[in-house]
Structure formats: structure tokens, C-alpha cells
Amino acid sequence: MSERDDSTPRAVTMRDVAQAAGVSVSTVSHVVNDKKGARIGKEARERVQRAVQELGYRPNAMAKVLVKGHSRFLGLVADAIASTPFAGQIIRGAQDEAWRHGYVLLVANTEGNEAAETEAIAMMLEHKVRGVLYSAWYHREVEPPAGLTETDCVLVNCFAPGGDLPAVVPDEVAGGYEATRMLLAEGHRRIGFINTTSPSPAHDGRLEGYRRALTDAGVSFEPDLVVDARPDQEGGFEAIGPLLAQDVTGVFCHNDRVAMGVYDGVRERGLRVPGDLAVVGFDNQEVIAAHLRPPLSTVALPHYELGRVGVRVLLGLDQPADDGRVVVGCPPVHRASVNVTAGVNGPPAAPH
């Protein structure tokens, strides 16, 4: 049997810090664990802090969990965020805000696998996370896993039936309003809307925003100018023909992929964006929007802000409304696909 290797440095203990600072071990414990109400003089506290720094003492993480009841971890369980075109923006926003408040984010991307989801939540509970963010890759109603009842939880980009859990969601209505306003502000009055065929908060909210913007500008809503289509490039290509036949001069697309198809349909007919048709998308999927020719005006889904605000709600720094939700704005992103010459079909819309 080989002899024990004594060259391995011994970990600095709380007793070592106490001896260096000339205080008791319990005093060191109170200082390093930031014990509330502990009566420790300023000089003694400074000696402990100086000894901790000089000796390189690192508090035992699990011991701190026992003292505080939770760790410095926050959990984030996502169904497919890491593989979506918005890769990691919710995660990045949550991570930045967690770090700002002294927490580390534990991330589990489950790809919608129920067993993996259950295991991930169990692992986070074992690590005594301060709380869990549960997120979906597109805005919808979800049935939260049962394990989330064992800790604080905030839903991000999704919501539960009955509003049982706080939820941070994008403002689909205001986003639809802003998209339509970009067209109205340039004088367009015959504005089509290519919506999705799938029932969802985005389908209903963006349509409501479109209608509100028209009403506020004194423009009548025409149901025939709203076309439901598949939310992809082919859907946009197929939908633009019927709208052009009704003499629209601008079109608001459910997302940027639909807008790609609209560009294709316009080009095939020998027309131009924005000279013959102004186009606005939704999502600000930059790999599409910023690289179309001309670059696409759109409305951004605030994924980074959703993650950031989710952490703030989880830590009690922001409070949801009475319905349990925090609604995050969808800002307009102005590029070159909207006609910059006002007065296409009359005077510009009055600002709201």
C-alpha cells in the first residue's frame, strides 16, 4: 500500500479563519453566512473578512444551503429553446439577470420529453434551487409539471390555465398594433394582414392589435383583407396573390418567414418592395429580417427581456398584475421594407 501523499494542499477550514482572526468559530460562521441579527462588532467582522481573503477560505456550499434553506442556483427548464431560431435569448436574459443578483442558472433543455423534464426538475430540487423558470419556445398555454409545486416557479413565454402560476409573456396585442402603425404612419390605408392558421395567443393578439390600430387611425376594418395562411414562406407566397387582387398597398405578416414568401410573390409578379407593396413582419428573426433585400421592417419578440424579467419575478423584484401576468412589450424594428413616402393613399394616420 502506498503512503498517503501529504503534498496535496489541505483545504482551509473555518477553524483556521477563526484562529487567524482571533475570534470564535461561531463568529466566523455568522460572518461568512451573513447571519441576520448576529451581534458582531465592526472590527471583528473586518478581521474575519480579511482572514477569509488572505487564507483563501471557501465556504462549504452545502453547509450554506442548510443554513439558508436554498442554494445560489436558479433553474430553467425549457422545451426546445436551445434549438429554435432565437437560440438562447431567453436563457441569456435569465442568465445575465441571475448573475447580477448572485445566482447561477442551471439549464435543462428537454426537447419536450416528459421523462427528461421530470428528471431535470427532480435534479434541480435536489440542488435546493431558489426557484425554477419553466419556459416554452413559442407563446402558448401549458400544463406545468407537478414537481414545480415544490418550489417557487415562474412561467416564461407561456401561461397556465386559470393563472395559477405567475407568467411573463409577450404583449401580442401591442405588437400587432405597432406593426400596423408602421404602415399607417406612411399613409397606407388598404393594409392586408396574413395571419396564421393555428389557434394561439399570437393569432388572436396580433389580429386584435391590427384592428385597434386601424380603428385609431379612422380606417375601417375589412375582414376580406385578413388571410389565414401557414406560418411559413410557402404560406406567405400563396396568400399574397389574393391580397394584391384587392389593391392592398401594405401587408402585415404574422412572422418573418411569411414575409419571405410575400417578397417571393411580389418579385414573381414583377413588383417591388416597398415601391409597389410595403411589408412588415413579426419576430425580428435577424437571419431573415436583416438580410432580405430590402431589409424587413418587423416587430421583435422580446426573448431576452422575457428571460430577464422572469428572474426578477422569481426573486420578488418585480410583481405580476392581478391576473398573475407580466406583459413585456414587442418593440418595432424599422428597416427599409415600408414606403418612406407618406401619402400613398391619403394623409398619414394621426399618432396615438
UniProtKB/TrEMBL annotation:
Keyword DNA-binding included in the entry's annotation: yes
Q: Could you list this entry's UniProt keywords, alphabetically sorted.
A: DNA-binding, Repressor, Transcription, Transcription regulation
Q: Where are the transmembrane segments?
A: none
Tell me the InterPro entries matching this sequence.
HTH_LacI, LacI/GalR-like_sensor, Lambda_DNA-bd_dom_sf, Peripla_BP_I
Going by the entry's taxonomy, the superkingdom of the source organism is recorded as: Bacteria
Instruction: Please name the Gene3D superfamilies in this protein's record.
Output: 3.40.50.2300, lambda repressor-like DNA-binding domains
Q: What is the lineage of its organism?
A: Bacteria, Bacillati, Actinomycetota, Actinomycetes, Kitasatosporales
Say yes or no: keyword Methyltransferase present.
no
Please report the stretch or stretches of sequence annotated as the HTH lacI-type domain.
12-68
Species annotation = Streptomyces himalayensis subsp. aureolus
State the name under which the record lists this protein: LacI family DNA-binding transcriptional regulator
Q: Name one Pfam family in it.
A: Peripla_BP_3
SUPFAM superfamilies attached to this UniProt entry: lambda repressor-like DNA-binding domains, Periplasmic binding protein-like I
Q: Which terms in the Gene Ontology molecular function aspect does this entry carry?
A: DNA-binding transcription factor activity; transcription cis-regulatory region binding
